[in-house]
Amino acid sequence: MTQPSTHISADATQPEVVGGVLHALIHPDPVTLMTEILIGLLVAGTVGLWLLPGFKPDAPMAELKARLQSWWIMVALFVLAVVIHPTLTIIFCGLLSFVALKEFFTLVHLRLADRRAILLSYFAVIVQYYWIYTGWYEMFLIFIPVYMFIIIPFRLVIAGETQRFMTSAGKLHWGLMALVFGLSHLAYLVVMELETPFEAGNRGLLFYVVFLAEFNDVLQYVFGKTFGRHKMTPTVSPNKTWEGFLGGLACTSVLAVLLRFLTPMDAWHALAAGVLIATTGPVGGMVMSAIKRDVGVKDSGHFIPGHGGILDRVDSLCFSVPVFFHFVGYFY
Q1: In the chain, what is the straight-line distance between the N-terminal and C-terminal CA atoms, in Å?
Q2: Does residue 317 contact residue 281 with C-beta atoms inside 8 Å?
Q3: Which of 100, 192, 197, 259: CA 20 to 30 A from 208?
Q4: Is the pLDDT of residue 301 over 70?
């Protein structure tokens, strides 16, 4: 007896494929929805930039175009790194730490005698993210604060140079803590085990904290330029105002509640998370501004057109992400 054919033609499956794609776009999962929101914001920004000369002819169009183009690239790279595979996310975050650490070491002018300690610091980036890849939470937490805290000064002692020893040790330790340990919490968000299941999964947490931290920077800038009268730290970061800070805090807190579908949090916890992100992020920005003013530069580099260096974009994440990570870990 001949068996019935199980072959299905491409033409027969095409409506199903198209229907599946349309269904995914109209009824997306939380991560897809967040991606659509990001693309929508970039499209709106692009249209607004086209229309801006008609309303404000003296606007710095070249700078704004460079900033917007950079945002398109940064968002595309971030989304691809997050949605494809957790390993790619870990590698992406590790590269962020490496480049930011390199920019930091270039800024702070370390001694020639520190070169081997610098190499050890770069190697620590690989080791720290290896602990994340393997899910070894305890080593992730203590490797840099404990082991590198011992290894770095020991390497400096072996070099035999005592002039500016404390200065070098402080710079190396601070760079590792902020740009490797702090930022590495971003990568661990994708592998951390939570007791509370939620639809978006760990990728949703990553979208959530990065979007809120970066959007808070934009909101503070907009509110500061529009309503800013009272400067927070005139000698450190003259562009930051209390009006900008409070406007960013209010909007980011509301956004945190609206976007809680990316997390396992209820409305109250989401509100608290928004407040934490909106307050710790600017602290990171101001601390990094103090470092740049100390060494006499405006930007940490020129890696991102219109934005400066990688360090200029991740400074708020260095402080806000670890706080958010442990907040979620404690409650969920």
Answers
A1: 59
A2: yes
A3: 100
A4: no
